[in-house]
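Researcher: Hi, I'm a grad student and pretty new to this. My advisor asked me to get structures for two proteins we've been looking at. I'm not sure of the right format, so I'll just paste the first sequence and hope you can take it from there.
Model: That works fine. Here's the first sequence with its structure tokens right after it:
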Amino acid sequence: MSAGVLRPMAEADLDRVLAWRNLQQVRENMYTHHVISSQEHRAWWERSRNDPAVRLFMFEVDGAPAGVITFSRYSGPDGIATWAFYSGDTSRRGIGSAMELAALRHAFGELGVRKLECEVLSFNDKVTVFHLKHGFRVEGIFRDAYVRDGVHHDIWRLAMYRKDWERTIRRVLEERADRRGNPCDLTGKIHEQAIALTSERVRAFAEASGDANPIHRDAEAARAAGFDAPIAHGVMGLSFFSAILGTHFPGAGTIYLGQDARFLAPVPVGAEARVRIQVLTHIGRRVYARTQLLTGQTVCIDGYAELLVPPAMAT
């Protein structure tokens, strides 16, 4: 598939764009998820094309329209913009990555923004991971900020900065697009390792950390707190990520730059747990990975780690 190009959206594109926008797989992930009427669509077009903070584009591959890319809240060169996209062509492999690369080139090139942002609804985890693979980073999560059919959902806010795009992200993404690749690239790699949360291990962690909360060692205290049995320290679970990242995968010399985590379920003392680390993207020396601690099929800790790997592992 060729790289594809952006061209300004024209009035002649409106029928096609409306048909794409009303596809269930598109609208179900939008803030406005009902079927858009032609009147609503026309009003959006008139409002958007006359807004100096908005740019509307068609993405074409081999001369044929394949998707829509929009920029909004554009504050001018060296400013900030928010972008979104959707594809109307589901038959070609790689359309999404081609659109993402085209949008990044335009944002940091022609628009000259300093920072490019996007928002993803929490149930659209596939797109969140997709953006992370292309170098975006999570800047924040707006908890319960969106309501649909009486159910509250989070909004994930992601961003990329021009300095990071120019330093390494552009080169790595273009290498991937050209299928040149890099043998050091860890993107997509998964490491899993079993962990035994023995009472001896939990006791040693309590002594080392000074956390003597009785719910970690006393069954009666644990039951009083609402647990069936003593539970391991949540931060102890995070320590397993650190141990694996710095010794086994990616390996010795790896440095932690940051970790966010959600504690979703307790881990009983004595449980057989499993650490799962999936590299979402590896750009230059920076690695962004999903980190999980599981017992059986239950995800007890879920989060993301940002790492700096040794120079020999750089892409």
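Researcher: Oh nice, that was easy. Here's the second one.
Model: And its structure:
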Amino acid sequence: MNRQWMLVLWAVLSAPAAGMAQGNAWEVEVHGGRLFTPDITGGSGSLPAPGSPFTTTPGFGSRRVSSWFFGDGAQLLNGVASFPVFNTSSRITPLDPVLNNPLADRKGGGSVGFRVSRDITPRVGAEFNFDYASTPFEARASAVSGLNATSVSFRPVFEGILPAALFVGRNPNATNTIQAGDASEITGTGAVRINLLTQGRLIPYATAGAGFTRHRGDDPAATVEGGYSFQLFGVFPFNERDSVSLRQTVDETVFVGVVGGGVNAYLTQRSGIRVDIRAHLGKTTDRVLLDANPSVTTAAAASFIFSVSNPGISFSSFPQPSIFPPSSLSGPAVDDFTTFEVSRTRRQVLLTFGYFVRF
């Protein structure tokens, strides 16, 4: 662009906008853009308390656990597998790091919305904003690898402590799933706009206000399912199932403060384009909730067996309570136990490009 054209462009953009807004107090805008959302940081984790102890017939100690996949159950299983009598180096990989961290992070995405505003004075105006943004969750790589490591390690550790010569038809196995969650957000805010200039085709401004953001869609979730069945000496059946599910919850509605600014570029006396950037700041809490549901099947040809170790593992197909020891996998069901929690100020940034009309 030569110098003459640059001078013409400068003259147009810097020309006073006298009369441009006179009599046009209302303004309507449609816009699109992108919402940027940071990953979760910080937080604290916890695990359910150890299971209640009991004594097997020869006096060895064991515990009632709710799952072999995490916490006390994984510790008991690995403690038993470490005894030389089993001659195995296999260990279960505890799910603990997955439980004590978020399953997924919310990612930013495209947004669309509209804005209605009214001038109070040439410098000050009030506005209402409505925006819809796609904010899908993305599973953390550490959660995916942790779930896989736990389920893959389940089979070899039980094959190590259940010798095929005694436990006929043994078939320990575990699988896992994870769903990141398809989600979106609706945001409604009111704000005060302060024009930094009142004349010219380019009008920079600052905004401040408040409103709400509402979560919509699916939350991240994961499962680990495992179990084993066998017959002792080919006669006495045993069948036990281990089921763990996780879900990450977010606050459905978050009240937010708004700060930002932008530039209006007038194309005519009644219309123009706008570039706007603003931050939505709100307190929110993210949690990971745990459910564990062990299942031990009783049998008509009931029996029990225990490992010759201390601590030990007990398998039982007798209905409980009984004079016989229970199965170690007979701890209470776990419902909505919070394994991870973080309260934080979520800082989302919304960048939009819009077209407005004044009337």
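Researcher: Is there anything I should tell my advisor about the second?
Model: You could mention this: The chain has four helices and 20 strands.
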